[in-house]
Amino acid sequence: MKKLIVLTAGIMLLANACNNTPKTSGLDLSDLDTTANPAADFYQYACGGWMANNPMKPEFSRYGSFDKLGEENVKQVNSLIMDLAAAQNDAGSVADKIATLYNVGMDSTTLNQQGAAPLKPFLQEIAALNGKQAIRAAITKMHKQGVNPFFGVFSEADFSNSSMNIAWLYQTGLNLGDRDYYLEQDARSKELREKYVLMLTNMFRLSNYDVMANSTPEKLAAAVMAVETAMAKGFMNRHDLRDPYKMFNKKEVAALNTLIPEFDFSAYFAALNLPGVDSLNVAQPEYIKTVNAILKTTRPEDIKAYLAWNVIRAAAPYLSDDFVNENFNFYGKALSGRQELQPRWKRVVNTVNGALGEAVGQIYVAKYFPPQSKENMLHLVANLQTALGERIQAATWMDGSTKAKAMDKLNAFRVKIGYPDKWRDYSGLEVKADSYLANIMRSNEFDVAYNLAKINKPTDVTEWFMTPQTVNAYYNPTTNEICFPAGILQPPFYYADADNAVNYGAIGVVIGHEMTHGFDDQGRQYDQQGNLKDWWQPADAENFKNRSQVLVDYFNKIEVAPGVHADGKFTLGENIADNGGVQIAFQAMENALAKGEVNKTAMDNFTAEQRFFLAYARVWAGNIRDEEILSRTKTDPHSLGKWRTNGTLPHIEAFIKAFNVQPGDAMYLPADQQASIW
Ligand SMILES: [Zn+2]
Predict the structure, then answer these.
(1) How confident is residue 371, by pLDDT bands cut at 50, 70 and 90?
(2) Distance of alpha carbon 584 from alpha carbon 137, whole angstroms
(3) Cα(480) to centroid of ligand 1, in Å?
(4) How do strand 151-158 and strand 161-171 relate by DSSP bridges?
(5) Which of 677, 398, 397, 406 minimizes the C-alpha distance to 551?
(6) What is the pLDDT of residues 59-87, one digit of tens each?
(7) CB 246 within 8 A of CB 236
């Protein structure tokens, strides 16, 4: 449950570029829709051609630049894995583990013959539970297997001493998705609840749990819905989850036990092989009281139905086609609007990437990541860091002491590029040909043990929280680090052979975006060591809030679907980061222009400034389904691609100038209404 601030929700992979042509603009004019007016709808102008040329595909809920690269990358990772699968590997080697897991996942004949059988022992154990003590022990055992009904325990930095990891108790286990879906009375929420109950019913029947529990699928489904609805009422909402002070409540285990007398945490930590844990952070104490009430008043057979469902849900993607399809009908179709399941090989590649991510990553970077890219990135990051420093110094709304602290934090950034210096050891993970599900459960246990082993130990600042093949980037506030995996260092983010205007507009903004997270509404609350500590002069903090509120109000007014508005407060951190990212990268480009590192003359009839903004927009090109728009508006702290472009750029005076946007144009905002923070 690591709280990283990432560039985009959803982990994706991407392709390597082999571009040996002489220096170009890096633009592809076919991405544009020149019939659109850039001052009216810049997104359509910059990306309309791309969207027409890359229509939505049945297996996607959103198909954008990111997803297209992800498609190509999955093919590359697949070919790496296929090479291993075809080779003679030493038994127990990492190559052997990758190949075995892949082969087991691809063997649909065996999976369909096995049906619900791999799940049976787990469910029989739950059906046989007798009494509260047995139920508590079962919950603990599930947590060790990476299945987290009710809550979960994870290692995470101590916000008051970020050099140490401590145990964090965190709300988990709402399987319908966002808490709103259980509680709201609009037509879509009601329809989702109906479809969810139908899926639960089908899943209990498919798994035979109804027979084991001597009940009916309908009754079991209703019981699960009742338990999860009670949980949803106590769940911390998405706004409070963004407030680190609300989330940071260190307690002795004894004090936690008084919040939840129905669950003995001393026994719990002993069973997790963590007998030394006598204090921890309780992220949502009110919710823990809700769990206590549920454990106290709910019939044991209903709790057991909820536990059984958690196991079935975790297992469904790794079982026979009937489970996979049932799972997809709800989570793929109903929630996201996907029309087709991904082909098996893609699903299996993603699973192998999840279970053995750094092992695959090590092979990936050896084949696809040119060392020169790391050098180039270090140069770009240094230029962005300089530009942000200049902007902090020039800010008119902060006084000198706050600026000095901000500069200290900026100068203390840890920068990670490409891949980790040391690789994770997978020798403790057993992979064998028994069943796909058994392998997934062992992999989960391996990951949980790895995570829990960090509790009450010093933070390892060399650790990576994304694999190298990931197309994404992150800022982690407690280590004050920015990380750019190899996967993102490629077109349309980074062009090794193009003029740098597009690189500043794309990967430059990504770098600036992640840096700005250190100073957004959440990140600014941590100091240069990553401790939650207020380093702001009160008047400067007030100015920050007022300047941020401009973005909250602006995004609240954006209608993302008929009658549905963006959530300006929920997306504030990302919108600040997009705003700051564009400003910082633009300034870095101006510095580079002055040094002759960017072509001053027009290329493809666009000025350097125009190429910068076209490259920025292109990163967010994409088609998206209505269901996915609604889903992301509740669950994704990032604005939708269209609004990362059309909502962000009116606040950027350099954009207004570059495209000669005039009062009255949709992309126009007068300077005194623009958000100006970093
Ligand atoms: Zn971000």
Answers:
(1) confident
(2) 52
(3) 14
(4) antiparallel
(5) 677
(6) 999 999 989 998 988 999 999 999 998 89
(7) yes
Tokens in use for 323?
């489970």
Segment 650-658 mean pLDDT: 98
pLDDT at 522: 96
As given in the structure block, the two tokens for residue 378 are: 């270090």
Tell me if 401 sits within 8 A of 537, measured CB to CB: yes
pLDDT at 3: 59
510, 493 Cβ separation under 8 angstroms: yes
Rounded to an integer, the average pLDDT of 393-415 is 97
Does position 343 have pLDDT exceeding 70, yes or no? yes
pLDDT digits over 51-66, tens only?
Answer: 999 999 999 999 999 8
Distance 515 CA to ligand 1 centre (A): 9
296-322 pLDDT, tens per residue?
999 999 999 999 999 999 999 999 999
- Give strand ranges (E) for 318-444: 414-418
Task: Give the pair of three-digit tokens for residue 105.
Answer: 């996942």
How far is the centre of ligand 1, averaged over its atoms, from the C-alpha of 678 (Å)? 15
**Amino acid present at 567:** D
130 C-alpha vs ligand 1 centroid, how far in Å? 46
Rounded distance, CA 482 to CA 513, Å?
Answer: 10
- Ligand 1 centroid, distance to 66 Cα (angstroms): 15
Please state the φ and ψ torsions of residue 607, each to the nearest 5 degrees.
Answer: -70, 165
C-alpha to C-alpha distance for 643 and 106, rounded to whole angstroms: 39
The CA 581 to ligand 1 mean position distance, Å, reads: 10
Task: Give yes or no for a contact between 413 and 518, defined as CB atoms under 8 angstroms apart.
Answer: yes
pLDDT (0 to 100) of residue 19: 39
Q: 357-368 and 94-106 helices cross at what angle (nearest 10)?
A: 110
Q: Going by C-beta distance under 8 Å and a sequence separation of 6 or more, which residues neighbour residue 319?
A: 111, 114, 115, 116, 118, 119, 436, 437
Q: Rounded to the nearest whole angstrom, what is the distance from the C-alpha of residue 472 to the centroid of ligand 1?
A: 10
Position 62, amino acid:
R
Q: What is the mean pLDDT of the chain?
A: 95
Q: Is the pLDDT of residue 8 over 70?
A: no
Q: Is 61 helix (H, G, I), strand (E, B) or coil?
A: coil
- As a whole number of angstroms, the distance between CA 414 and CA 476 comes to 10
